[in-house]
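User: Show me a protein chain along with its predicted structure.
Assistant: Here is one chain, sequence first, then structure tokens.
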Amino acid sequence: MKQFKLSTQLLILFSTVTFLSSLIFGYISYRNYQSVYLGLARNEVNNYVEATLSNPRETEDYLGYILITVNQVSTFEASVTSRYISPNTILIFGEDQPRLNRLIEAAYLGNFVYSDSTGTYYLAIETRQEIDSETTQYLIGVMDNTYIDSVKAATAREEVLMTFFGTFMAFAIIVLLGNMVIAIWSRNTTARIKQIQRGVKQFSNTGYENKIALDGDDEISELASAIETLRLEIRENEKTKQEMFQNVSHDLKTPISVIQSYAEAILDGTTEVEDAKVIIKQTEKLQGKVRMLLELSKIATLEVKEKLEDISIKDLINQVLSNNKHRLNHIHIQTDLDDSKFYGVREYFYTSIENLIDNATRYAKTKIVIIVKNGTLTFYNDGPAIEEKYIKDGFKPYEKGSRGQFGIGMSIVQKTFNKFGYALSVENIDQGVKFTIKPL
């Protein structure tokens, strides 16, 4: 079905369902007519038997009877002690005694319809006389299919044929009208889908500026709304990416310019060799920024191939603090760490915690408080309140903050913890800011 258009699929589906429904309805109608014919046959043979019991009547070409005397003590095969077959029944069965025995047995067992290779017969059995306590005489009415065939022949042209013709005509009209309605509906539906398709195709030409909107309250409108939300998000990401390139260029330009100017001065002999320390310092700054960019790129395309393990956050924090103690001696760091473990890769968690401490150090006035309790990690610093956009939207790479700092470090932290199933949230509390990391 995939090779057909949606409108064609709907038409095929509706026509198929309607056609199958007409066949089922026709079969049910046929079975109903068959039950009517069976009722006529039962009524005819029962009336014949009842009339013959009270007053023997002449047999018909298609009706006859059999008189049997049954000894109820013996088995059925031995119980039929005598038979009387009407002339009509002899005409029906001739001298085929085994077939006659099978018909008598079917009637005695209560079967209404008996069929064999010669045709279908309708049976009725009534007690004619109880001879003694062990012996009973029965009358079996036998009717062949001649009467029913004549009834069918008389009604087929008028009632049955017209009923079936009317049924199929009704279904044909339903198919025609239904397909017209579906064609109109599907044309409108596919037109709306194509409108969305055209809008999406224009994204590359308009830079995601063309709005996707459809009237209505159905699933297609919801799809258009979802695409519109995606468009706005992509447009915002493209804008952020452009700003990021500009900010990265600006962020790298300053140390490069300083390095260049000092290197030229050394070559010209207008500065001391000691000034090479400035070049080294700027180079270290560049290395730090490049490292952060690589970390961000690595996290964005991360396919974790390293073995995941339970990592003691307490040990990791102590290691980061020890390795960076020369940078942290001007601020008081308070810790309260239990033995909680985070599941992931040690290297990535180390970088993220180092970035969290670096961020806290940059903004804290007097202290940083690090707490690990029951699988939740929090970092508090008594610095200024964080901007609302970070609380609402999270951290975007190279989005400039209030102090001119770019959020690449915190973006790495957020993406890293998200990658391993942890959420990073931030909130302003009394006289400070608190970052919380906990399982999703």
